[in-house]
Amino acid sequence: MQLSRNDSNIRFLTDAFPSVDFRLYQSNDPDRFISCFIATFPDPDPEPDAWLEITSLIAVDFQASLTNDFATWNIYLALVFPRPISRHLKYKIESNRFALRKMVLTSKEESLEKSDLVLETIEDMILGNDLKLRPASSESLPFSGSSFVREIISSTVAIPADTKEKSILTRRQHIAELLSRISQP
């Protein structure tokens, strides 16, 4: 999945905050629709509640018009500031759960203001593009094949699930036995 720029729906933001540079990136996957707004502030000390007003505008003018539930809950706002903001404000912004998820980025260098680097950072944060998945070999697992799993499933059916002392001890013994088998070479 990739995010592509689509600034056709952001006039409501640029009209309200003309000094802030807004961009909108959306996923190219119709089944997993993601929208990410980027707001780059030119002022090193922006209005403290500007992020809250931007969030509200996105919720009312953009989010409310979406019909897909998945798309409605997968909206992100990246706020890019020209220098670090206070830890308290950053925490307040990023932990706010109203309407969409928010991220705070700091452009310590001019290069972060370039859309490619901002987009790469956001893709890493949202899509996990920096994650590398490697298949595990069956030899590295403590059990090979599915016979061990089948044995676990079939043996747990006979274990009582009530809260009697005897049942609790039986479950503990069974778990201990399974753990010892897994840890053996």
Description:
The chain has seven helices and five strands, in the order E-H-E-E-H-H-E-H-E-H-H-H. By secondary structure, it is of the alpha/beta class. The chain has two domains: 125 residues, Trna Endonuclease, Chain: A, domain 1; 46 residues. The protein is elongated and about 70 Å long. The protein starts with a strand and ends with a helix.
**Looking at CATH, which topology of the largest domain would you report?**
Trna Endonuclease, Chain: A, domain 1
Using the alpha-carbon principal axes, give the shape.
elongated
> How far do the termini sit from each other?
40 Å
| Beta-strand content bin | 15-25%
Mean pLDDT: 79
CATH architecture of the largest domain: 3-Layer(aba) Sandwich
Strand order of the largest sheet: 1-2-3-4-5
Q: What level of helicity do the residues show?
A: 25-40%
Listing every helix as H and every strand as E from the N terminus to the C terminus, the arrangement reads EHEEHHEHEHHH
Number of domains: 2
Gyration radius over CA: 25 Å
CATH C-level label of the largest domain: Alpha Beta
Biggest sheet record: 5 strands, mixed
Give me the secondary-structure category: alpha/beta
Segments where pLDDT lies below 50 for 5+ residues? none
Number of helices: 7
Q: Strand tally, please?
A: 5
Explain briefly what this protein structure is.
This protein is an alpha/beta fold and 185 residues long. It is built from 7 helices and 5 strands; from the N terminus they run E-H-E-E-H-H-E-H-E-H-H-H. Helices cover 39% and strands 16% of the residues.
